[in-house]
Write a structure and sequence with these properties.
- The complex is a heterotrimer.
- Chain A is mostly helical.
- Chain A contains 11 helices and 4 strands; from the N terminus they run H-H-H-H-E-E-E-H-H-H-H-E-H-H-H.
- Chain A has one domain: ABC transporter involved in vitamin B12 uptake, BtuC, CATH 1.10.3470.
- In chain A, helix 2 runs antiparallel to helix 3, helix 9 runs parallel beside helix 11 and helix 10 crosses helix 11.
- The radius of gyration of chain A is 19 Å and the shape is globular.
- Chain B is mainly alpha-helical.
- Chain B has one domain: ABC transporter involved in vitamin B12 uptake, BtuC (Orthogonal Bundle), CATH 1.10.3470.
- Chain B has 14 helices and 3 strands.
- Chain C is an alpha/beta fold.
- In chain C, helix 2 packs parallel to helix 11.
- Chain C is globular.
- Classes of the chains: A mainly alpha, B mainly alpha, C alpha/beta.
């Protein structure tokens, strides 16, 4: 029982990281209608920047996180401006391949800048683990911090999208880009803003991911990126609570699958569940169904 | 020029290029003019040409974005390897060529079965969802291959799932993959496989079924309304593509003494997709050429070691961004049109 | 289009046939210079250059080190890399770095008759049935056996857990002999957990399994990158067994940003310690640091020794730069397996069996206050 609870909490913690990444993915997809494969690599850059701030410049953790957020935001907007914007009228396949190119580019730049040696990220979470059942069940401080951050970000983002003017224009662009433009919404600025927010979230996710799983390599972000995208689709792409739900469920399934079936099967199980969900509910758990126009 | 004549010409040119390339290679090899590095890449190049052409059938001609093509390749590779090892133990009198051909057929068969099983659910989805589900299936295949074990005890083949204990010598050892494979792949068979692939794909594309497949790609609802069985034709393209990928996989697997399932990950699928997109969606000759050039390119950039993947990434982005730039496109089109004179109408239809 | 293809072919050929200047015996290595295992390949490639320069300066055998080739740890790319080196006139290979790639290249080198002395590919299959393949490092089975014996002899624990990577030959090879030897010696393996690079970096399930089973000692026959994650995870859930590693654990202390207190008390078998005061080791470490601004790990030390062994062999067998690679191969095989041949390097005093495996003494070290302490 204790071990089940332990796995469950580990799953929720892992899932919360997926969820934060998925939030960024989901927003970008919902608004720009593109699979941003480089999103996972922005996470990696965020973690490296924070690592450098702490390790080389000896800055306090909070400053490191802020620098990382700012740099990733700029990076995200830059990528959008240089690589994706010229392709806005092209096929989704062309955009996908470009995103893959950007992903390779970021990974190899990181390899050149930070070298091939793996880095170890020092956890920035200041509080201790939580002990339950007389020390039988230990929930690490990082797990708690990740879950709290995930929930806070989801609530904040939801409020932003519902209440602010920028949030409303984002929803409008995601509904119908052309109509939004006719209504006087600056579509380019809105998309750019979406990338900025998504990338800032990626930086946070990178810091949290590496606080829990400390080794940092140029490919650190790839697999979490793919899983997070899966989570976004699972929860219903474009839906903010959906991304959160999808992420957490995915993390829990992965850990329980690894614990009770086989460590090799964790990922397979995640993807199998995704396929089943999509077959019965093609727009994801909380997504809106899309009707095809003739 | 009529449309029919044009497709015939394209087919003829493609075959001519491939056959000429083969002859050039053979002459170079005979006269010891080809470097070892390039000679060693001939078989993988054949495999990747088949991979690219078969993926083009799914992505370019059928219009379904697939991110799991390497999964089919891995099924073909490992079923081929296991069969070849078993045949060697059971029928030692068989020649290497016979074993290789049987392994290729077996690879195609297993991969085709997987194609049917995956195609049924996958083809109900569309667009990016289809992409993510094919990616998911690719990953599932890889995970399952990590749980499978095969061993040979004399001529008896043992298999197990999730239990790495078997009598005899491992042929396929879960995550550690296939080991001690006897290399029996040859360039001649690779070339024959490329020809076979081209024959199958061109035949399909230029047939009634091929036109139905393209009609579904261009407008599914319209195709459906004129009575085309959408599921049937989509399935046809998907499964043929899987079979060809499996055959390429078997050839690939029997070209190395050791091979792991981790080789066939998302990156591998994406690599083939890049071949297809840069070669031109729907263009078979384009796939052939881009698979060749893009497979050789990183090997040629060896001198730049650390920078080569960086260069590759930059080229990829530039080609996509500039290639889709309306001004540049306009210039290219105008030049093309003036060269081709009055064939504009035929172009649009193709 | 035909022109394009022909152009590509022609270009590839000219690149492959780089001009050959016969000013030394051509040696090279193949290893992961990029990708997740890049540190191993780069360490070997760097140490190779250092050692070759030293050997050349001695004035005896002269080596020309060809550019190290990248295989990203992938066996199929390693074969391409090997072919590229053969085009450049390679005469002997100080590689490859990783086991899987070495097995693949070994099959080619065996057919071509190219002598290979791998610094670090430790899997038993690397040398199995191939008379041209020799290792500087211990074989995996030796390491697994030696680890179990050490644990039993010193009574470190009776309940043992193992976490290993079932996707790499190295880890599985050590695990297999460790478990077999542990059973012989009366150690109880209470839990085993696997991972592969695919499902790293989450080790919560594996560490929990060890904790639940009450393992007093966790044996980690893995590389140090996942080990760092495991140690961090164990600390996070307040689980503190003895962690016992193998040579792949070497390098954990030099990871940038690693909190060395996590590794306090970790034991490992390694033939090399960068903190050693032995003069040759100290000189090598100092030179490496000066040139590459990094502390060399055991892979680098193995590569350093490999070059000296090759130089010694070439002197003994009278190999010159004019000899063909297959002639060299036969000469070196005879020389290295000669009964009186041994080499005392910075990773120990080594002697080779005809099956290609090395015989040298493993050393156990414990990490105390962020440094190795010889036991």
């Amino acid at each position: 029982m204790v071990s089940f609870l332990s796995h469950l909490f580990n799953g929720i913690s892992l899932g919360s990281v997926y969820a934060i990444i998925a939030l960024g993915y989901s927003m970008v997809y919902g608004i720009a209608k593109m699979l941003n494969f480089a999103h996972g690599d922005v996470i990696m850059v965020g973690a490296y920047v924070c690592f450098s701030a702490l390790q080389y410049w000896h800055l306090p953790p909070i400053v490191g996180v802020l620098i990382s957020i700012v740099l990733c935001t700029v990076l995200g907007m830059l990528i959008e401006r240089l690589a994706y914007k010229p392709l806005r009228q092209s096929t989704s396949l062309a955009v996908l391949i470009t995103a893959i190119g950007v992903s390779y580019l970021l990974q190899n730049l990181a390899l050149l800048i930070w070298g091939a040696n793996n880095k170890v990220f020092t956890s920035i979470v200041p509080f201790d683990a939580l002990r339950l059942f007389g020390g039988e069940l230990v929930i690490s401080g990082e797990s708690i911090a990740t879950v709290v951050c995930g929930v806070a970000i989801m609530i904040g983002l939801n409020a932003f999208v519902r209440r602010t003017k920028m949030g409303k224009s984002m929803r409008a662009v995601s509904e119908d880009k052309n109509a939004a433009e006719l209504m006087g919404i600056n579509v380019n600025r809105t998309i750019s803003m979406t990338f900025a927010i998504g990338s800032a979230l990626a930086a946070v996710a990178g810091v949290l991911l590496c606080s829990t799983y400390p080794t940092l390599t140029p490919t650190t972000g790839s697999m979490p990126g793919i899983k997070a995208f899966t989570a976004a689709v699972f929860g219903g792409i474009g839906s903010i609570p959906g991304a959160m739900l999808g992420g957490v469920l995915l993390g829990v399934i992965e850990i329980l699958g690894k614990a009770y079936i086989s460590t090799e099967l964790g990922d397979a199980l995640v993807f199998a569940v995704l396929i089943i969900v999509l077959l019965f509910k093609p727009s994801g758990l909380l997504g809106k169904p899309v009707r095809e126009k003739v | 020029m009529s449309m029919k004549k044009k497709t015939f010409l394209m087919t003829a040119v493609t075959f001519a290029v491939v056959i000429a390339a083969f002859i050039i290679c053979q002459v170079l090899i005979e006269n010891k003019l080809m470097s070892r590095a390039l000679r060693g890449q001939l078989i993988p190049i054949c495999c990747y040409i088949v991979m690219a052409v078969s993926l083009n059938l799914t992505v370019g001609i059928s219009g379904e974005l697939s991110l799991g093509h390497a999964g089919f390749m891995s099924i073909g590779a490992f079923s081929g390897i296991v069969l070849a090892a078993w045949l060697k133990a059971r029928f030692p009198e068989l020649s290497d060529l016979a074993r290789l051909l049987m392994a290729i057929v077996c690879g195609g068969l297993f991969s085709g079965v997987a194609g049917v099983l995956i195609g049924v659910p996958v083809l109900r989805l569309r667009g990016d969802y289809l992409a993510i589900v094919t990616l998911a299936f690719g990953e599932i295949i890889r995970n399952i291959l990590n749980l499978v074990y095969f061993s040979l005890e004399g001529a008896t083949l043992h298999a197990s799932f999730n239990q790495p204990v078997l009598p005899g010598k491992f042929v396929y050892n879960g995550p550690a993959g296939a080991q001690g494979v006897t290399k029996i792949a040859t360039f001649e068979v690779g070339f024959a496989l490329v020809l076979f692939t081209l024959l199958v794909v061109f035949n399909l594309v230029n047939s009634r079924s091929g036109r139905a497949i393209k009609a579904i790609r261009d407008n599914r609802i319209a195709a459906e309304s004129v009575g085309i069985n959408v599921t049937k034709y989509k399935m046809m393209a998907f499964v043929i593509s899987a079979v060809l990928a499996g055959m390429a996989g078997a050839l690939f697997g029997l070209n190395y003494s050791t091979l792991q399932a981790s080789k066939f990950n998302v990156d591998a699928s994406i690599q083939v997709l890049v071949f297809v997109v840069l070669g031109g969606l729907g263009s078979i000759l384009g796939s052939v050429i881009s698979a060749t050039v893009l497979y050789v390119l990183p090997e040629m950039l060896r001198e730049f070691a650390q920078y080569r993947m960086l260069i590759y990434a930059v080229i990829l982005i530039l080609v996509m961004v500039l290639g889709n730039n309306p001004t540049l496109r306009g210039i290219v089109n105008r030049v093309g049109e003036s060269l081709r004179g009055k064939n504009r109408k035929g172009d649009k239809a193709a | 289009m035909k022109k394009l293809l022909a152009l590509v072919l022609a270009l590839a050929m000219t690149l492959g046939m780089a001009s050959a200047v016969a000013d030394g015996i051509k040696i090279a290595t193949i290893g992961p210079l990029t990708g997740p295992y890049a540190i191993y390949g780069q360490n070997v490639a760097n140490a190779l250059l250092i050692a070759a320069e030293e050997v050349n300066a001695l004035g005896g055998v002269q080596f020309e080190v060809l550019e190290a080739q990248d295989d990203q740890g992938d066996p199929t790319l390693a074969v391409n890399a090997y072919n590229a080196l053969m085009d450049q006139g390679l005469q002997m290979l100080a590689g490859t770095v990783t086991s899987g790639a070495c097995i693949a290249v070994g099959a080619e080198a065996f057919n071509d008759r190219v002598f290979c002395l791998t610094p670090s590919a430790s899997n038993d299959l690397v040398t199995a049935d191939k008379d041209n393949m020799f290792q500087i490092c211990f074989t995996d089975s030796n390491q697994g056996r030696a680890s179990a014996q050490y644990i039993a002899t010193y009574g470190l624990a009776t309940k043992v857990g193992v976490i290993y990577n079932n996707a790499i030959d190295y880890s599985m090879g050590i695990r297999n002999t460790f478990v077999a030897e542990a059973a012989e010696l009366g150690l109880e393996v209470v839990a085993e957990a696997t991972f592969s690079d695919d499902n790293a970096p989450d080790f919560s399930v594996q560490v929990d399994a060890m904790k639940q089973a009450g393992a007093e000692l966790v044996f980690l026959p893995i590389y140090y990158t996942p080990a760092a994650n495991i140690l961090a995870r164990a600390k996070a859930v307040e689980y503190a067994p003895i962690f016992f590693g193998v040579d792949g654990m070497d390098g954990i202390l030099t990871m940038e940003g690693f909190d060395t207190s996590l590794a306090e008390g970790v034991m490992l078998l390694t033939p090399f310690s960068a903190d050693s005061t032995e003069p040759r080791t100290a000189a090598f470490v100092a030179k490496y640091q000066e040139l590459y601004n990094d502390i060399p790990n055991q892979f680098a030390a193995d590569a350093y020794d490999a070059v000296y062994v090759l130089a010694d062999l070439c002197t003994k067998a009278g190999v010159t730069a004019e000899d063909s690679y297959d002639a060299i191969c036969e000469k070196l095989i005879a020389a290295i397996t000669a009964e009186d041949f041994h080499y005392d390097g910075i990773t120990g005093d080594m002697q080779w069996a005809t099956d290609g495996t090395v015989n040298k003494l493993p050393q156990a070290v414990t990490i105390v206050d962020g440094a190795y302490k010889l036991n």
